[in-house]
Amino acid sequence: MRLVFRLLSAAVILVLLAFVGVLMLPGDRLAHIASQQLSKQLGRDVTITGDVSLAFWPTLSVSTGPLEIANADWAGDTPLLRAQAARIGVDAASLLSGDMRFRMIEADAPRISLVTDTSGRGNWELTTAEAQQTEAAPAPSPSADQTPAIPVFTLDRLRLSDAALSYTQAGEAPVSMQGVDLDLSWPDRQGAATLNLTLRPAGQPVSIAATIARPAALMAGQTAPVTASVKAPGGTASYDGSFGSLPEAQGTLSLDLADTAQFLAALGVSGVEVPQGLGRRAKAKGQITLTKGTQLALRDTRLTLDTNTLTAAADITLAEKPRITARLNADALDFSGLAQGGTGGSGGSGGGSGGSSGWSTAPIDASGLAAFDGEISLDANAIDLGTLKLGKTRTVMTLDRSRAVFALNEVRAYDGLVTGEFVANNRNGLSVGGKLRASDVELQTLLKDAADVTRFSGKADATLNFLGVGQSTAAIMSSLKGDGTLKAGPGRISGIDLDQLFRAGGAGGGTTVFDTLTASYTIAGGVLRNSDLLMTLPGITAEGEGKVNLGARTLDYLVVPTALNARDGRGLAIPVRIKGSWDAPAIRADMGEAIDRNLAEEKKELETKVRDKVTEKLEKELGVTVEEGESVEDVLQRKLEEDATKGLLRLLGK
C-alpha cells in the first residue's frame, strides 16, 4: 500500500512539475514553438516577431506582434496572411507530448492575399509536399490520379477581425474588400468545420454561414459536402451540395429575395433597377452543376419573379460576358410593368376636338442588351405586355453583341396568329424594328391596346415592316419608317354612318358596316401615308387617302364614299374628312371636295358660259379679240402693253 501511495505521489509530482514547467516556459520560446508547429502543420513558413506575452486563462495562449504566413512559391512574395498582432492558444497537455494542438488563433486587422493560377489552383490549398520542397529538389507536380497530402492540422477556432481581403484570378485585375470578419471552428480533423464570414462589398454586412463536412478533402483540392447560406439586406440565398476549390459544385441552390435591387447592391452590384414582373421580388430553387469554374448548368429550376412563375433549364458559360442557352416555360406572365406609359413628351394635338397625351419621353435603358450573349426560348400560355395582350406564345430570343432578335414562331393574339421577328439593337444607340405578319386578328381589341383607337372592328390580315431609332418611345415613334398592308372584312366603323350620310347629309354618329377593306401604306419620319384605301359596302364604295402622324398622334384623312346607283347611275360622292388628334378627331363632310367630284361637268359648262360672256364684253368695250387658247388675263395684259407703247410714242413725237 505504501508503494502504491509513493507511485501516486511521484505521478502527481511529475504532473505538477510539468505544469510548472509549462508555466515557466518563456513567452518567446512558446511563440517559437508555435511558429514551428504551425509551419509544420500548414506546410508554409510561419513567422512571429515582436513582443510576446503569456496568458493562462481561459486557454494557455501567447499574444504576439506581427505574424506572417508565407505564400505558395508560385504565387509571389506577398505573404498569404500578414497580421499586426495575433493571439495563439494551445492545449497545455499537448505541449507535454510534444505534439502541439492549437485551440485558438486570433489575428487583428490581417491582410489576406488570395491568388489562383491559370489552372485554377489556389494559393490557399495547403499540402505537406510544400513543406518538403527545397530549391535544390523541387517536388514534381502530382498526377491527376494522386491526392495531394494535406498538413496534419488541428484548430478549435480561428478568428480574423477587420481583415482586408484581396483576390486575384490569373490574368484578371485584383478584387479588394475591407472589413472582413471570419470565425472558423474545426476541432476534429476527421470531422466537420463550421464557418461564419462577414463581408462588406458595398459597406453593408453580408453574412455567410457554412458547414464543411470534410475540410481536409477540400484543402486537398477535392470536393466535399457543403451547406451554406448568405444573408444580406434584401434577401437570403442557400446552397446544399458538394463543393470543390477548382471551383466546382453540384447541389441545390435556393434564393428568397424580398428586394432584389437592395440584395444586389449589398453584394456590390449597385444601380440595378429591376422592372416589375422581372423580379423586384424573387424566389428560385433548382439544381446547379458548376464544372471547372466556367460551365454552369441549371436544371429543374423554378423561378418566381414578382407574380410570374416559370420553370427553367439553362447552360451558362461564365466569362467576362457570359453566354447563356436557356429554355423557359410558363403559364401566364405579367410583364405590364415593362410598358413605357405616362404623359411625357409633347405629343401634338391637331385640329378638332380633344388632345393627345403624347408618347413617353422617359429614356429607355437598353444597357441590359450587353449583359450576355446567347439564346433563350420561351413557351407561355399568356403574356401581358401592358399595351398588348398575347395568348399562347412560342418565341426564341438570340442575343449577340447588344442586338436581340426575337423570332416569333407562334403568337396567338387578339383571336388571330402573329408571326415574324422583332429586333432591338443597342450597338450604336437604340433602334427597334421588325417584320410582322398577322392573320385573322380582331381589329377592335388590337387597335385599342396598341394605339387607343376604338372605331374599327372586324377580322384582319396585315403585314408590317418597320424601323425606329431613339432613346425614348417618343423619339422612336417620330422616327419610324417602313411599309405594310391591311386586308379586313367584314367589319364595322363606329362614329360614322355612310348610309345616313347619303340620306340626310350627316356624317357623325352611327356605325358603318363594310364587306371588305384593303390598303397599303408607307412610313417615313414617323408619318404613315396611304393613298389606296378601298372599302366596299352594299351599293357603296369608299376610297381613302391621307396621313397619320404616329409621333404626334394626329391624323388628316379623307374618305370618299360613293353611292353607286345615285344620279341615274353616275354615282354620288360625299367626301368625309377625319382630322385632328386620333383620340378624338373631328369628322365632317368636305363640301369643296364634294363639289369637285360630283359637279365637275356642271362646273365646266358654267365656266364656258362665263368665259364666252367675258370675251364678248372685252371685244365690245376694248376692241380686242380673244384668240383661241388665250386667257382673259393674257388679253388684258396685251391691251395694256399696246396702250403704253402708243402713249410713249406720242411723248417722243412719233
TrEMBL record:
<dbReference type="Pfam" id="PF05170">
    <property type="entry name" value="AsmA"/>
</dbReference>
<dbReference type="GO" id="GO:0005886">
    <property type="term" value="C:plasma membrane"/>
</dbReference>
<protein>
    <submittedName>
        <fullName>AsmA protein</fullName>
    </submittedName>
</protein>
<dbReference type="InterPro" id="IPR052894">
    <property type="entry name" value="AsmA-related"/>
</dbReference>
<feature type="domain" description="AsmA">
    <location>
        <begin position="12"/>
        <end position="171"/>
    </location>
</feature>
<dbReference type="GO" id="GO:0090313">
    <property type="term" value="P:regulation of protein targeting to membrane"/>
</dbReference>
<dbReference type="InterPro" id="IPR007844">
    <property type="entry name" value="AsmA"/>
</dbReference>
<feature type="domain" description="AsmA">
    <location>
        <begin position="355"/>
        <end position="532"/>
    </location>
</feature>
